[in-house]
Amino acid sequence: MTISPFMKALVASTFMLLTSACASTSPNAAYEIADPWENMNRSIYAFNKGVDKTLYKPVAGAYRAVVPKIPRKGVSNAMRNLREPWTFVNDILQLKFKRAGTTLSRFVVNTAFGVGGLFDVSKQMDIPFHSEDLGQTFASWGLGNGPYFIIPFVGPASTSDAIGFAAFVIADPVTLGISRTNVRGLNLTRTGVEALDLRALNHKVLNSLYDDPEGYELMRSSYRQSRRFELYDGNPPEEDGDIFDDLEDEDEDAVDDEPVGN
Length: 262
Prior knowledge:
By secondary structure, the chain is mostly helical. Helix content is 67%, strand content 3%. The protein has one domain (5-20, 31-256).
């Protein structure tokens, strides 16, 4: 491969796990997961907070300030399009063949007619987006999620999600395809751009979380809610409100209505 699994995990998982944890998208009660290592997790949370403050937050803020919203949207579309093959694999593993057809349709349409995914043409054709990962696949097979823990430089996870992400690092079809081109650094470039995009998309949410005295609890709760939402394919039983709904609305408005953000 063009880059080692360690390098890809270090860069990509820093944001992919963290932003998936902090950007819940539906008002639901927490998805139950035990936190038996809370003292250790709190120490790692504090460490990750320092890394974010000194590195990730300034870079993401500069990106939002310098790059206009339309190009940023194009980058987000392209990065999401590159994740569609992994979603397709997990659709098949979960025997969700209709959803697999939808995923494949989105990828083909956006790649062919959306300039490699820069434009979400499939949205105009009413082909809905959804995401799947191996952690969700494990859950559909009836496997438990394991304890909650925070990975240094990475963010919140459970045992099943961590194993699933490791599988993504190794077996993602796009990563494997890029590695066959033998273009040095291309996978690392893709990983870095995706990480930057995800951190920038959730800039205000993550800033608010780390600024809150109860940020640890907020991150844990949001992670549980987000995973619960995804495991129910976006239709879980409705219960209590999501603690991040208002913050997410603000971020969406910033992307849609503001020329720049910081």
